[in-house]
Amino acid sequence: MPVQTSLRDVILTGVLAQPHAPWPRAVVNEEIWREATRHLSAGVWSLLALWAESAQVHMALADGDDHFGMITVQCRGQRYPSVARAHPPAIRLERAIRDLWGLQPEGLPDQRPWLDHGTWQRAPNGGACRDAAIAGAPYEFLPADGESLHQIAVGPVHAGIIEPGHFRFTANGEAVVRLEARLGYVHKGIERLMAGMPVERAARLAGRISGDSTVAYSFAFARAIEMAHGIEVPPRAVWLRALMAELERLANHFGDIGAICNDAAFAMMHAQCGHLRELVLRACDRCFGHRLMMDQVVPGGVGRDLQREGSEHIRALVDESRRRFPELMELYDNTASLQDRTVGTGILSGALARQYACGGTIGRASGRTFDARRTPGCPPYDGLEFDVPVRQEGDVDARVWIRIREVEQSLSLIDQIVRRLPPGPIAVPVAPPAGAACEGAAMVEGFRGDVFVWLRTNADGHIERCHLRDPSWFQWPLLEAVIEGNIVADFPLCNKSFNCSYAGHDG
Hints:
Elements lengths: L6 H6 L2 E2 L3 E2 L3 E4 L1 H12 L3 E8 L3 E8 L4 E7 L4 E3 L9 H11 L2 E3 L25 H4 L13 E6 L11 E7 L2 E8 L7 H5 L4 H8 L7 H16 L5 H29 L3 H22 L8 E2 L2 E2 L5 H27 L1 H7 L7 H6 L4 H5 L8 H5 L18 H25 L17 E8 L4 E8 L5 E7 L6 H8 L7 H8 L3 H5 L1
Parallel strand pairs: 2-14, 3-6, 7-8
Antiparallel strand pairs: 1-3, 4-5, 5-6, 9-10, 10-11, 12-13, 14-15, 15-16
Helix pairs in contact: 6-7, 7-8, 8-9, 8-15, 8-17, 9-10, 10-15, 16-17
């Protein structure tokens, strides 16, 4: 097959899956699958997601920043050509596919389990029984050679109120030589639980995958359903969804900025930013009946309207945030001891950010301009004025400043939305096309980055298969890279500046 440079051309060589919206999906042969892998390895395309079913593997791809599509390869004898063999960001995704489905990626560089912690007798979603010797073997962390090296084991149970994850440091004195994380402790089998669920119940489950991103997940799931079923959401609901998404982003960025400063022993910033976050959560509760706005973005629209007094609460929140936040940021910028801890610490190179298609504040702090509100975009963001802040330094300080600028942009967006909120209904019924199976996909910008959802509904309109990909899948591996060469005491700063989700990743 000649070298292809267009994702569209590659998709057209396969058999299109119908109906599928808004992006095409094609079933391709192994040769085309390998060709797509070469494009990923060369940095021509970006990997958005990689997931499986009982006898096939799917890959969502981006050709540049504005062409999206999906390809599928059938597995012969439970095997398929490994993507990770040439494209490292796929390694953990393929390890998870093997654990969950029993499908073997041919050429996978890392054969260790990922979600399976040695207790599964067989792949839970199908596949042959595990080899008993492999299933019971202890997990082998990657070695590091050199004189005077020692290991520090942290977790999976931590001292604070935090989800479980294990971090294995190899250090020379205080300098970190290697960090390796082991996750999967909170794997919940979400995708298998969803199979067969009615849409309304599945939507509630989607909103509970990662509680701090409940709006982003609900938003992405709802849009995927609406794409699959050809549903047009009322304009007022479209704008209310964006309002909730920006409130969620605002609350989490306030929390993260304060927590990063706290890990540098600057507790006053933590307290002040925590108070601003609390103001956002209280406004959300008054306006939408829940501090996290859980179950308020639903397929077909939203669950609760914004009343006049709610608009007044939000305007007061915006005014108070604009009054207090600049003073805090000036304090952050002018505190030498704080700058000493954040500037030049935990640098993520632009090359790695691009290779892993790393989104959110982490990617934008390392020069990657991608923001799902812009591309592929969704209404009403195409009618709102906002900037996507980008830095090149890639350190903890840059990740703080991206959050600072995004707080400013979110306040502006919230102000615009409340002023321009159109009248009308807030939801429409969700009904599938009569007697037809449908597929849909969506990508929504959460506070961590892009949340991707792909799903298929059956002829009855119930969920047949749903895949939900958290941005943390492409961010956790980069945390391991940025800590190398830093001191052990800087890991909390680097970790919090990433703030990856355990629950969203483990799924």
